[in-house]
């Protein structure tokens, strides 16, 4: 089984839609870091930030100036960012489509790791067959199924313990042109000892190791977060990294039934640690982002607000009045 950390998309790609969020890579890509930074501090307001400020913030994460400018340019071409100019100076903000997709993705991340819905013992099965010449459509379908929490039990047969909800159904309808059949039911037990259980579509040992690695990486930082010792650029870097790492877990572990998992499953401890670090660093990280932006903007930037786990669960609605009036659009 291919590592879920190498899936094409963490956030959804609507196939033919012009908006294309960055492909997830092994490690942090400049485009991915840029999207995380902008979502973490401007998702609700879609405030424009000076391009020089975005470059400076990316530089604090280790992205070179050339790499940062290239990332911004590519994100604008993808439809993720919208640019504006004032003389020779440029600013960028999240596009409305990107903000909507990122908000939906953020909500999915938290609900997938905090839901307490009991499993009814049934599996949703998606069977599809696409001809070889539609390889691009097949890749898009697989990426969507991963994003929706499915895993391949066999080639062309993907499963999930959760029901196919309306948004998931709409996405599959857009991608498959009638080439998919969906079932929901219980597994029929077989007498043979060699049958494959549906839960085996996921590498449970690998997921467990990923949770353990996450806890070992972030637990030592927690005392510094609580005491306020993590500040400035370090706070922004930590929030970016913890988000970039944690948001992969709903794909690794899409609310897999606890009844089928080893005792002491680490989903909830990981979620609680993520929330403690991400929310605990919100205030110092926001102050630092405001300070960096102020170096390149004319006046204050009221639209910079740290995104929290409460926002993620509630679902962020873009404040059109602030965004569309262009507040914070001073160029850098």
TrEMBL record:
InterPro entries assigned: PaaX-like_central, PaaX-like_N, PaaX_C, PaaX_trns_reg, WH-like_DNA-bd_sf
Residues covered by the Transcriptional repressor PaaX-like N-terminal domain: 31-95
GO BP, sorted A to Z: DNA-templated transcription
Start and end residues of each Transcriptional repressor PaaX-like central Cas2-like domain: 118-188
Name listed for the protein in its UniProt record: PaaX family transcriptional regulator
Organism: Micromonospora taraxaci
Record domain Transcriptional repressor PaaX-like C-terminal: where: 202-290
């Amino acid at each position: 089984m291919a590592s879920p950390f190498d899936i094409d998309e963490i956030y959804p790609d609507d196939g033919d839609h012009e908006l294309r969020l960055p492909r997830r890579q092994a490690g942090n890509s400049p485009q991915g870091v840029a999207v995380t930074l902008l979502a973490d501090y401007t998702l609700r307001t879609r405030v424009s930030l000076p391009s020089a400020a975005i470059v400076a913030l990316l530089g604090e994460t280790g992205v070179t100036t050339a790499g940062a400018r290239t990332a911004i340019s590519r994100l604008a071409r993808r439809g993720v960012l919208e640019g504006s100019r004032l003389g020779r100076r440029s600013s960028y903000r999240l596009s409305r489509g990107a903000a909507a997709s990122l908000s939906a993705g953020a909500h999915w991340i938290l609900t997938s790791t905090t839901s307490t819905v009991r499993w009814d013992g049934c599996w949703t099965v998606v069977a599809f067959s696409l001809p070889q010449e539609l390889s691009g459509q097949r890749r898009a379908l697989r990426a969507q199924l991963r994003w929706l929490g499915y895993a391949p039990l066999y080639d062309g047969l993907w499963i999930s313990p959760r029901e196919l909800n309306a948004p998931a159904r709409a996405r599959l309808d857009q991608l498959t042109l009638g080439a998919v059949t969906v079932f929901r039911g219980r597994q029929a037990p077989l007498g043979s000892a060699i049958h494959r259980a549906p839960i085996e579509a996921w590498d449970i040992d690998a997921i467990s190791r990923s949770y353990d690695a996450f806890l070992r990486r972030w637990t030592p930082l927690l005392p510094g977060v609580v005491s306020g010792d993590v500040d400035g650029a370090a706070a922004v870097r930590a929030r970016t990294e913890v988000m970039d790492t944690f948001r992969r877990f709903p794909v690794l572990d899409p609310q897999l039934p606890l009844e089928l998992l080893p005792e002491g499953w680490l989903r909830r401890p990981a979620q609680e640690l993520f929330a403690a670090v991400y929310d605990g660093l919100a205030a110092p990280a926001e102050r630092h982002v405001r300070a960096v932006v102020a170096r390149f903007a004319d006046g204050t930037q009221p639209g910079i607000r740290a995104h929290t786990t409460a926002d993620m669960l509630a679902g962020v609605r873009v404040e059109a009045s602030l965004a569309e009036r262009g507040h914070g659009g001073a160029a850098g």
